[in-house]
Amino acid sequence: MQSYYDPKDLPRFSEIGKDAPELAKKFFEYYGAVMAEGELTVREKSLIALAVAHAVQCPYCIDAYAKECLEQGSNTAEMTEAVHVAAAIRGGASLVHGLQMRNAADKLSL
Amino acid sequence: MTLEPRDCLMQEARSALCPSTCVGFAQTLARHGLRLEREQTHTLQINTGLLCNQACRHCHLEAGPKRTEIMDRETMDQVADYAERGGFQSADVTGGAPEMVPEIDHLLTRLAEAVPRVMLRSNLTAIRDSAREHLGLLCRDLKIVLVCSLPATHASQTDAQRGGGVMDASVRTLQWLNTLGYGQSGTGLELNLVSNPAGAFMPPDQGRTEERFRRDLQRKWGIVFNNLYTFANVPLGRFRTWLEASGNYEQYMTRLTETFNPEAVAGLMCRSLVSVDWKGDLHDCDFHLAKAIPLDGTRRHVATMSGPPLPGTPIATAEYCYACTAGAGFT
């Protein structure tokens, strides 16, 4: 079946280095450094990544970080809460723009 | 390109492309210039049988309430004699649920006289059944170390692996064991936990998981314990059946093989432990016991053994050995 998203593409991620290997190298080194233990634990970063994956709706990232969160010792209740955080911020981002709507409408209205 | 270990997307990429599932464990050892053989054997692991009040979905032995294999008193005496004769330092009593074996009191009492350290593996529900509460008191009096299964501090994962209601029952048992002195400082009563992942994924870092368990169990239920161990699930028995039925087998084996850690081989438990089944026959470990692979390729009964297997004795290998060498290893 034709699809824009194919799970078989995830293992091919490194192929993005073709034709631009230096840029890919810089990206993957940066990516690795970001996700390594720092002020935040790897477990905490994985939950953030899972939430962001839902916010940007990346199926590859959702698959990868669902597994990573489990391997970091998170449970599905924590992971579901992380997704709700993404949903709350996404929803809130839409709703807060309602003030812009109201400003525009107020300016035009008697 | 240098890849950081926590680069998840890249891990996924490697796991799908890695051909290592095709490589046998023995070949992998050879590629690293390693041989799997015994050093000094100081622990006697005793599998008292497959009868259990739980039917955990990851159980490599497919233990459960309908199993009838259990150790009899005569074999118990032979095992205890061997433990003493062999100068073993530890006895590690497992099952099934050892608590359900009718003469388990006798075995524990004899072992406590025979070796300095006796461990009892408990699923945290059988030991609290009304007919067996005396076992906790016996363990306390004999200073037996309890090694208890608790995959997670959240009911969803614990119950998914071990059955509905097990989390609540486990919490009540742990609280009760704490009241007996287990896990409390200064009592000498050791209470250790074992966490296996609730699915086809690798266990989290042991040290950090222990910290989380300590914090969560204390905060939620006031429970204290001594140590926590995290182990990968071994693709055998019920767990393997589930892996295959759920389409996870290939991916799981690839994950195990790609995380092969040559440094874990030196500390593998099979190098210092020998496992005896409920009939009294010896195996390199509880996983080879599950597959009926005898020690050193020949059926050997404890009654015929003068001592532990000698250092240098080769240890059988199999595909599922990768579960013990993944990451930090299974020690």
Quickly list its features.
heterodimer; A: 110 residues; mainly alpha; 5 helices; extended; B: 331 residues; alpha/beta; eight-stranded mixed beta sheet; 12 helices
Give a written overview of the molecule.
The complex is a heterodimer of chains A (110) and B (331). Chain A is mainly α and 110 residues long. Chain A is built from 5 helices and no strands. In chain B, helix 5 links the parallel strand 3 (117-122) and strand 4. Chain B is α/β, with parallel strands linked by helices and 331 residues long. The two termini of chain B are 33 Å apart. In chain B, helix 4 (104-114) runs parallel beside helix 5. Chain A binds chain B through residues 8, 10-14, 17, 21, 24-25, 28-29, 31-33, 35-37, 41-43, 46, 49, 60-61, 63-65, 67-68, 70-73, 75-78, and chain B through 1-4, 6-17, 152-154, 156-157, 197, 199, 201-205, 208-209, 212.
β-strand number of chain B: 8
Shape of chain A, please? extended
Low-confidence stretches of chain A: none
Number of helices of chain B: 12
* Cα-atom radius of gyration of chain B: 20 Å
Helix content of chain A: 55-70%
**What is the number of helical segments of chain A per DSSP (H or I, 4+ residues)?**
5
Percentage beta strand of chain A = under 5%
**Fraction of residues in helix of chain B:** 25-40%
Report the major sheet of chain B. 8 strands, mixed
> CA-to-CA gap between the ends of chain A?
55 Å
> How would you spell out the order of helices and strands of chain B?
HHEHEHEHEHHEHEHHEEHH
Record field, number of beta strands of chain A? 0
